[in-house]
Amino acid sequence: MRFALSLSLLLLAASAPPRATPPPGGWPIIARPVPLDARHPEQDRVGALRWLGGWVLASRNPRFGGISALALDHGRFLAIGDTGGVFRFRLVDGRVTDSSITMLPAGPGKTDGKNDRDAESMTGDPKTGSIWIGFEGHNAIWRYDGAVTHAQSHDEPAAMAQWPGNGGPEAMTRLPDGRFIVLAEEAEGPDGSTQGLVFASDPTVKGAEPIRFGYRPPKGYVATDMAMLADGRAIVVNRHYTPIDGVSAVLTMIDTRAIRPGQVIAGRELARLVPPLTVDNMEALAIGREAGRTILWIASDDNFNPLQRTLLLKFALEDGTTR
Prior knowledge:
By secondary structure, this protein is mainly beta. It has a single domain (24-35, 44-317), classed as Tachylectin-2, Chain A, CATH 2.115.10. The chain contains one helix and 23 strands. The chain is globular, with a radius of gyration of 19 Å. The termini are far apart.
């Protein structure tokens, strides 16, 4: 079967037209709008979320895809792919502008595959501009400058050493007081939960000793990203996938102020994205503010699979308790 598949791919490549020359500045990122529910285009609400728009992102640059972490800085997105891609763009009236596609300047392992430079989580310090990125496989955290042009420091924290190679630091956020929360995708925590860590400060400092706690995602789901609200609570994206059920996502809210060593916390469900609603392998979350509203941006990892999509979904949070 493997030989037959390889032969088919070779024949397909031989018959494909030659690649076009990229334009000056490289191939851009483009966006195509999608509804929340193709069967009911008028639907604009799911749980505590108000639908504001959705887009499929794409580029002819083969490096684009695999988005696993997302940030928003003064209207421009920074997305990190799980093969080390760095994507920047703006979304203006449904059109992508000012886009660029580069690669991380340094990191664990090599740049020739997902298993070596599998970036899965990201957070930043708005005062210094520094960016922290968590990597599976090596269970490492690296700090970069705000332009992501050079690495500043890195570590493989001892508290993460036994985390699964493909279930490591999947979600990470920095609290306003300078602490960092890291959630594992699969590492076993207390009482059937998954492991969470709270670092008192920069997790790339050698020898940092975090406190441990447990996060209990919705049944059948794993945490894939998290981002802070201004009041100390955090939104967590949780993903479910099986070949039978397909892909779905649940957004939960946790109170980071309630975290204690050894404690297990569970989030309050905000919304559930299940087909036929527009959903894919949702792995990235950024939170912003527009006209006094809290805005959630959720992006998907297409795994560089032509059967999947890179989605960017925009919602307003309307749970009645958010400032």
